[in-house]
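Hello forum,

I keep getting stuck at the same step: I have a sequence, I want structure tokens, and every attempt I make locally crashes halfway through. Rather than fight my setup again tonight, could one of you with a working pipeline run this one for me? It's a single chain of 179 residues.
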Amino acid sequence: MIRGDNLWVRVEEKTLLAGVSLTIAPGEVVAIVGPNGAGKSTLLRVLCGELRPAEGEVWMNGRPLSAWPRRERAQIRAVLPQDSTLNFPFLALEVVLMGRLPHIRSTESPRDYAIARAALTEVGLEHLEHRLYPTLSGGGTPTGPTGPGAGANMGIFSTGWALSIPRRANYQPRFGLST
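Reply #2:
Ran it on my machine without issues. Output:
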């Protein structure tokens, strides 16, 4: 679960967020909607830990987000920014494997490849495994279901900002693989 309590963000004299509180349960899909400049991206930057609030606190799984080491944070949740450019000739499978980086000690293991392939299968895109990333349509890009978050054991993502946390604190891949 991720929770923001009374979040305030100020830049110089301007208030970007004023007392925002919300809770997002594991597996829940939430849309943050509003006009340009309303603070949607700022809120997401605060929730993922990229931006510290002037006041308030963000909690993940009952613990302040600031208390989580970055590696542990990355192993528990995936964040896909609104604008992500990846123009190198990576294969779709390699892009999904990027989501495994927080779990990899030296090089990718057969288990990492199995998880990445299972993520592609989970979203019905296993046929794209050997396609070059730059040739994929929006649904197969980093903010789509073949993005790095797919290989992070976090869930399925859509375009735009995505912040995903597991369905439960001790989340294991749903792909039938043991840890």
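The helical segments are 40-47, 70-76, 92-98, 110-122. If your local run keeps crashing, start a new thread with the error log.
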